[in-house]
What we know:
Layout: H1 9-13, E1 15-26, H2 65-77, E2 81-82, E3 85-86, E4 88-92, E5 102-106, E6 112-120, E7 126-138, E8 142-144, E9 156-158, E10 165-171, H3 178-195, E11 207-217, E12 227-232, H4 235-254, E13 262-267, E14 272-278, E15 288-289, E16 296-297, H5 300-307, H6 314-325, H7 329-335, H8 339-349, H9 355-373, H10 384-395, H11 401-414, H12 418-425, H13 433-446, H14 448-455, H15 462-472, H16 479-491
Parallel strand pairs: 12-13
Antiparallel strand pairs: 1-10, 1-11, 2-6, 3-16, 4-5, 4-15, 6-7, 7-10, 8-9, 11-12, 13-14
Helix pairs in contact: 3-4, 6-7, 7-9, 9-10, 9-11, 11-12, 13-15, 13-16, 15-16
Amino acid sequence: MATMTALSPAILAKYQPVIGLEVHVQLLTASKAFCGCVNQYGGEPNTHVCPTCLGLPGALPVLNRRAVEFAVLAAKAVNCEIRETSVFSRKNYFYPDSPKGYQISQFDKPIAENGWIDVLDAAGAPKRIGVTRLHMEEDAGKSIHDGFADSASRTYIDLNRCGTPLVEIVSEPDLRSADEVFEYLTKLKEILLYTGVSDCNMEEGSLRCDANVSVMLKGAKEYGTKAEVKNVNSFRYIRSAVEYEIERQIGVIEDGGRVVQESRLWNNAEGRTFSMRSKEQAHDYRYFPEPDLPPLVVGAAWQAEILSMLPELPEARRERMIAEYEITAQDAATLTATREFADRFEAAAKKAKSPKRVANLIQSELTMRLRLAGLELEQSPVSLEGIVMAADLAESGELSSKMLKQLLDTSFAESKDFPAVYERDKPKQISDVAAIEAMIDEVIAANPNQVAQYRGGKKTVAAFFVGNVMRLSKGQANPAMLNELVVKKLDS
């Protein structure tokens, strides 16, 4: 692994990182942006193509209405203002995976601008990151540099991805650390997944991020020279790449050098960025309005129709669930991790005697066992319906905490849902008043000091007697009945 001279905390503290992100998001439409070809990852190379996405003479683009709807949904989800009339442009450049010699994009009149995403800064305080713009464009093809016997001397081109509908979401340079970058991207991905406009699968290229990183002395008024870190395929690697790039640039300046404006790639194996190409002279893409597409008009009526499809977004949903179900912020964060799981929880919670107890069981009992088993929530052998049943039994006093834990352990050990295990191994609970009173009398007689403490005003000692009776009954005493009888006996 490449090494870089470690910089002291004092040197690092002299500088202020400045980071902006450009996130490309593939839209989850059935067909491509400007033709009827299937919009699907994979397939035999160059089979999801037609004269339009291949850029053959005479083939004209036709805008995908669903792509526009998804772009508007994404834009509103990140609090952007929708431009009623936007314009498509040709972004001209030559590269082998772009057969037309240009990319249909948006330039000076994008579909949306002036949005924001709230994150937490290093101190845990809310911070608003501006979203400069969200614009629509089409994706290019893919250059394949390996996987063939002659890869050392040839590059292959797969044009299946040509014409895939994208939105590019450009942030303001408001991010100040690699951790803030990670937080912003995590929030953005969560929001996009909730809207359903993309699957955000980074391994398949559905979400790609470039980070523009610069540093300046604290208190300076002008930003430093930025380097663009491109094509990093996970949020964890992006955080590492940004951390490295910040230290690299500070080291260059401290050594008396000058940061060069360039594109850099992240090498995860070596843990460093390396130069890809200089950007000292900015590209002149010679943008001009796309002559084959009219201006895109998304009027008030169409906007209202699209916005009716916008679901409740994660932050709003968490706040509502905290209030409605009296759950903690941590519970709400777990339960809203995905829109699908939040939907399933709410459907189940509405049938439960105590939604709060359902949430507590998920957070305390279910997630712990999933973590130990290395499973995700969606892979749990215990369904949410099973958790509701367990919560209801605990709420009614038919199951003690110990019994509940034992049954859940069995469910996970045997990969069986809770209802089936409960029906088979249903514990015999002692609900006979005389039997429970006899055990309480035995424990009271054996613990006169604790009895004196209770009757002296230390009422919390009642839990001591409940615990001892529960042990004496081998966890089978009816919890609700036991608690009531213990207090009655101690007060008599």
